[in-house]
Amino acid sequence: MHVITRRLRRLAPQLIALAIILGVISLVAPGFLTVSVQNGRLYGSLIDILVRAAPVALLTVGMTLVIATRGIDLSIGAVIAICGAVAASLITEGYSLPVVIAISLGVGIACGLWNGVLVAILDIQPIIATLILMVAGRGIAQLITEGVILTFNDDTFSALGSGAFAGIPIPIYLWLGTALIVGLLMRRTALGFLIEATGINRRAASLAGVRARFLIFAAYAISGLCAAIAGMIVTADIRGADANNAGLWLELDAILAVVVGGTSLNGGRFSITASLIGALIIQSINTGILVSGFPPEFNLIIKAGIIIIVLTLQSPAVMTLLGFMKFSRRRETLTHGTKEATR
Amino acid sequence: MIHARNLPFITTLAIFVIAYALCVLQFPNMLSTRVIGNLLTDNAFLGIAAVGMTFVILSSGIDLSVGSVIAFTSVFVAVMVGSFGVHPLTAFIAALVISTLFGCLMGAMIRYLLIPPFVVTLAGMFLARGAAYLVSTESVPITHEFIDAMMGFYIRFPGGGRLTLLAMIMLAVFIAGIFIASRTRFGANVYAIGGNIQSAELMGVPVGSTTIRIYALSGFLSGLAGIVYTLYTSSGYSLATVGVELDAIAAVVIGGTLLTGGVGLIAGTFVGILLQGLIQTYIVFDGTLSSWWTKIVIGILLFVFIVLQRTIIWYSNRQLAVRQLKEV
Fold first, then answer.
1. Partner of A139 for a Cys bridge, out of A167, B47, B106, B292, CB 3.0 to 4.6 A?
2. Can you give the pLDDT at residue B1?
3. Domains along chain B?
4. pTM, whole model, 2 decimals?
């Protein structure tokens, strides 16, 4: 019971923000909150948010781990493009579904390991190390698709993006499942704790016997794996691989989701759940602006505005100020108390 | 003796000269002043933005908003001149004021709210792009006799090449940047903050105002780059120049500036820009390579330079340790 309340307190700012945003949208757009069943499948704006959030949510899982190690992964948007291109080209060449999925996931892990080598072994700053793949990755994806948008017609593969199982769209299973597996792996074993130790002080962690190098490797590999799953969802959804636009700027959305989720870019304490709520906040804003009937031109500026407000409220300076106010109020009551007592 | 710190710059310069020589061996026409003139004109806006980026990176920050600010300025100028009939000069000044203030605001958020530069400028990137969409989502063409006169102004080289006004603006910005970085108090403060912000603060460097001025400078130069881009394409389009910040960062890194801040040269960025332009020119000359090879080659170059920088830092640290051991 105590654990649950503590958890809720940690997630409170994100949950309140999500509730406010959903509340505001449902005021502007009536019928926003209704969920109906059509053709044995759930429909509604809320379900839509959960489906559309799939790529960002998947990226967020990997990004949270990477950021917890005090790193950042800019390449995942490009990895989405690469894995999408690989999957689409394999499908058009007639490979079977398990082979396609296995190879795409392998390519994603390989991309993550490349980043891991640069960061963990060559000790390159994460921003720059992953910038290399971010810049070159789309070129590589173009190399695979040979400069065209590869389209395919394969119903079993596209089910990954648009299919449903037991009334719930498959992308929701994919991102919830991945988050659950990674989350359990982190919190039911010591892995998450060790990653936090690495992020807070890599040298100290190494000296204490934590295999920091391996953990950083693992974080980037998981990030690549998540990007590969996201890449397959994106590709399956539009039944084609667009090397130029698939996953474009999604890494920035994922970083924002992690930051909104309250994980510090300086590494250390992380919460995958909070990051996922951050991803849902961002997707709710996107969907909300669309269903509220605002002209699409306003989309980005409203999103930027909300994000700036959230960031400002969460910033270290405001936090210190709030902490100071709380402290001085407590001192006031204390001095009041002693005065009463002396009287 | 060459200082180890300047080694990345020397390497970049050597690679550029060798690469250019190889290109000329294959295509003798690439030596013509026409190609050189075009190289400068085509990369003018990127070069101007990269100067601002160099200052930001020297202070161990980063500015992701550059591409969006360029797009915003170009749409803003195009709409002011094209739709409202404002004189281009007035529109230019207004655009520069807006972009500089925008930079100031980001600098203040970084300094006073203590949010990392990466996140602040990321939000700024969305905001500026969103503002560009608000102004217009269509490609706005502009024609004005003043702009025609600006574009008609150039110095002719022997051999038919032209040093256009755009290239002149870029060269002027680079010269001013080199002067500011190496000869002014502000420049010294930037290096000090990038080297170690705590030491700088204890030494009495005005960290707050310098940070704000760094981002204001980057905003101003992004605005200027936007104006140059508008002149270059004779139009403004809110979807243009996506990802220019990455090209600018790549040019800065290839030019030998350490991303950890404190070490680097503006002149290096210039060579970085030329090297990127050279790759593109080569691909155009070759004709059989697709344009996406540019990205792959830039990625490889980035990798080579970063590894080179790591080796230099590792080597100089070792030298230092060896010297300390000897003293003991």
1. B292
2. 43
3. 4-327 (1.10.3470)
4. 0.85
